[in-house]
Amino acid sequence: DSDPKTVKWRTQPAPATLANFHVAVIGSGFTGVAMGIKLKEAGIPFTIIEKNPSVGGTWFENTYPGIGVDTANHFYSYSFNNNADWNHFFAKGPDILAYIRRNAELAALSEHTRFNEEVTQSVWDEQAMLWRIDTVTKDGKHDQIAANVLVTATGQLNQPQYPTIPGLEDFQEPVFHTARWDHSVGYAGKRVGMIGTGASGMQVGPAIAPVVENLTIFQRSPHWAMHNPLYFETVSDGKKWVLKNIPFYTKWFRFQLFWSSSDTFHHNLKVDPNWPDQKHSLNAENAKVRDQLVAHIASEVDNDPELIRKATPEYPPYGKRMLRDNHWYRMLTRPNVDLVTEHIDHIEKGAVITKDGVRHELDILVLATGFQARRMLSPMHVVGRGGISIRDQWGEDNPRAHLGITVPNFPNFFVTYGPNTNLAHGGSAVFHSECQVRYIMLAIRELIEGDQASAEVRAEPFEAYQQKVDDAISKMAWAHPGMSSWYKNSKGRVTQNSPWRLVDYRNLTAEFDPAEYIFTKKASA
Ligand code: N01
Question: What is a GO molecular function of this protein (predicted)?
Fold first, then answer.
């Protein structure tokens, strides 16, 4: 397990030492809350800065119809509060938000959190060896916070990507992004258009199709979606009882979810250089998965050849994120659903016009067009040692960090869910975030116990790690030539995904190696 149980002090610091130390955490989603809980347990003063009025992060912001997780919840939960009470194996958004809130309340994190306040800029003050963090509240009040350590817990997927389709601004009827769902707009009985068929679109479609007059789905490319019988199941009272009362079973249940993720990863994602049909699959196992997925599509669309053709991707399974079929394919057979694969030409008042000249009249347009993932940490400005900004260092879209966490020239700066840490092969993002929280806690312990003012990752381990990541990823499904997704940057480098099995990443981050860091003591006055 990643279990970041309280990192124990080797030498208990004096109360005055702790009182003089401060950690700033940006964001209170799953990771920010875990970070807060662990800092609190260790007695380290901290402030969480949260732009929203609530904890929850992505689970607070995404409220679209059908929202839910597609990782099994008994694994997609904190190892230190595994919650035997999940009602579903794959919970819906409100249940997950309630779980994060409960954890935050248990640790009374609201006492440490500045809600409705957004970080605009963080600058490393080389004299004081502190981060100076500029914030602005929703009502425009500016402030500055000083902290020894800065942890970003802003996630990779918080800035909506709006498509640049000519005429979008002329639509004039309600138009909104899935991550900014406008609940004041009723969709029942309306002609709804939806652009995008990724994880968000695939959940919205089946949730609204039964009540809208017509749903027109504009698909640029199809995504693979896997059937999982547990997806729709509720957890029986008996199972809940066992999970609550038989800890050994609970551990085993979580472990087998962990293990099956690692297993999938192994067999399906690596390119076999001798595999003949690399356009459609990567290896024998991957080809088998492809056949199963196609058979599933065919059976769900009643063998309609037109729908099979439109809904079946060319690229190998796992090239883009593997989705869960939440009755998406069955939905495509509804008489009030149209899957449009002709590309969009432009948008006019109340209509989307496709390249074939067809005018699709709509009352509402939903943009399920994803996020600006690759511009990591944007729109914040982060300025490190020597005045270098993170954008100067990373360029527009080439984020790199040691273990996905630390960056040369940025002392005492820790990124969670950072470069190359996204789990695109199954497995729980919460597991990864706990690995990162644990690593950061170990680093903070090193700073405090060693009476060090700063720690900055050395160039050599940083570069060696990047090389390892790039080498491993070049053999994976996402690097597949011709594959476009939010995993790759504009130069085709996979910047978002982790190439490691869960257990590998856990082992990589289990210890903090001080030899990989340059430590600096504060100059005495
Ligand atoms: O975004 P996406 P998402 N014209 O980028 C299309 C997590 N997540 O919000 O594939 C026309 O995957 C684009 O087309 P194409 C999860 O990690 C998890 O759905 O590029 N179409 C694609 O179909 C996920 O991977 C959950 O050809 C345009 C879609 O929009 C990540 O969030 C739920 C277009 C964008 O898909 C992002 O998922 C939701 C244009 N100009 C999200 N621009 C669960 O756990 C984009 N598209 C269940």
Answer: monooxygenase activity
